[in-house]
Design brief:
By secondary structure, this protein is α/β, with parallel strands linked by helices. The chain is 46% helix and 16% strand. It is built from 12 helices and 10 strands. The protein has an 8-stranded parallel β-barrel with strand order 1-2-3-4-5-6-7-8, surrounded by 6 helices. A two-stranded antiparallel sheet has the order 9-10. α9 packs across α10.
């Protein structure tokens, strides 16, 4: 499993290559240049050419690329572009629905981040997660909700989507993948809602969120940062655990291996060394 902590993955449309440097300077952990949903069909070839030129002119700029889905006419050309450029660090595969689709993308020599966003993709998740070349899974709640006929934004829809999140977490763990990324939060102006969504994602075990606007990055990072009290507790636990005792007491509570593991994860989320 990769040790890289990804809290925020910021999309930028390939039709706007001038925004790529701004996205890279936004503080996002990774930037995803989008050839799929953010690009209308008539502009697909131009978007690909824009990205090709940008990657050639800025070889130091490392980005991820969301290619078009496996059934799209431009899918093979998207993969060829990614394969040509060493500064493409991973490929997001939207609407994944089979392990074979993942393996085709992996053949271009890049780690694959499948996006689970259809009923069939969710059904095939056990085989998808175990496919060769996957680094981490991500979740597309909007598309999945549409495919399942959910009432977007309703409490009932969220209950169903949380089942999908559980499946993504479960199969990420079974396949020893990096922590998955939760879906985008579409209401850009709703800062409080975004913060709640990010905190919920962290509490569920997700590593972070897909982001659609630079203003979301700092909000996500702050929401995912453990509190000062949590970090102080984690440090006390690890300091007490250095004695080598299997079970001990910190702040009046018993500490054993699972509690030590939680303390380590809190410090890792804050980007602190755990020894």
């Amino acid at each position: 499993m990769t040790e890289q902590i990804i809290r925020s993955a910021l999309f930028v449309p390939a039709t706007r290559p001038e925004r790529i440097p701004k996205a890279l300077a936004s503080g996002a952990d990774v930037v995803i240049v989008d050839l799929e949903d953010a690009v209308q069909e008539s502009l697909k070839e131009q978007a690909r050419a824009n990205l090709d030129a940008s990657l050639s002119e800025n070889p130091e700029a490392r980005v991820l690329v969301r290619v078009n889905s496996a059934g799209h006419a431009g899918h093979a050309a998207d993969l060829a572009l990614c394969q040509r450029h060493a500064n493409v660090s991973a490929v997001l595969l939207p609407k994944v629905e089979s392990a074979a689709q993942v393996e085709r993308v992996a053949a271009c020599g890049k780690p694959v981040w499948p996006i689970v966003e259809s009923a069939l993709g969710l059904f095939e998740l056990p085989t998808i997660a175990s496919a060769q070349g996957i680094e981490r899974l991500s979740f597309g709640a909007l598309d999945l909700g549409l495919d399942l006929g959910l009432a977007s934004g309703s409490a009932a829809a969220e209950r169903i989507l949380d089942h999908a999140r559980y499946a993504i977490l479960l199969h990420s763990r079974i396949a020893a993948l990096a922590a998955p990324l939760d879906s985008v939060f579409p209401d850009i102006k709703n800062v409080e809602g975004l913060a709640r969504a990010a905190a919920d994602a962290a509490d569920m075990g997700f590593g972070g969120l897909l982001c659609i606007h630079p203003s979301q990055v700092a909000v996500v990072h702050e929401a995912l940062m453990p509190s000062t009290d949590e970090l102080a507790w984690a440090q006390r636990v690890l300091a007490a655990g250095a004695s080598g005792d299997g079970v001990f007491v910190v702040d009046g509570q018993m500490v054993d291996a699972p509690v030590i593991g939680r303390a380590r994860r809190l410090l890792q989320r804050a980007g602190r060394s755990v020894g």
